[in-house]
Amino acid sequence: MTDADLTVIKARLAAATPGPWSSLAAKPGWDADVGIIAPGCECVLAECFCEFKAKGDRHPEWAEANAVLIAHAPTDLAALIEEVERLREKIRQDQLNNHAYWCQR
Fold first, then answer.
1. pTM of the predicted protein model
2. Is the dihedral of CA 30, 32, 45, 52 positive or negative?
3. What is the DSSP-derived secondary structure letter of residue 59?
4. Which domain holds residue 87?
């Protein structure tokens, strides 16, 4: 993953509805099994359901798992970006230290 890739991901994350997001069991009138909401937002960000249209099988437990994954995505992405940046900086520092060590010999 390049710095440009991270920049694009960070821009998408910054443009999204502020979080943290959470999942919420569907309310009457919803087509979905689960909704994703953000605090202070008077809207549902997304609705999740899992149905195999060919069979008509519905799996609300998968919809809940999907909603939890989506709801945590902004927080998880931010943490992963921070970790990638931290590790890249550590590698950079280690390379500088290694170069300095060998130059002193």
1. 0.76
2. negative
3. -
4. 3-104
Compute the mean pLDDT over every residue in the chain, rounded to the nearest whole number.
85
Percent of the chain with pLDDT strictly greater than 90: 39
Count of domains forming the chain = 1
Q: Which tens digits make up the pLDDT trace of 2-15? A: 999 999 999 999 99
Q: Residue by residue, what is the 3-state secondary structure of the chain?
A: CCHHHHHHHHHHHHHCCCCCCEEEECCCCCCCCEEEECCCCCCEEEEECCEECCCCEECHHHHHHHHHHHHHHHHHHHHHHHHHHHHHHHHHHHHHHHHHHHHHC
pLDDT at 44: 81
Check residues 93 and 105 and name the one with the higher pLDDT: 93
Measured distance CA(35)–CA(45) in Å, rounded: 7
Name which of 64, 63, 71 is nearest 20 in CA terms.
Answer: 71
Of the candidates 58, 63, 79, the one whose C-alpha atom is nearest the C-alpha of residue 24 is 63
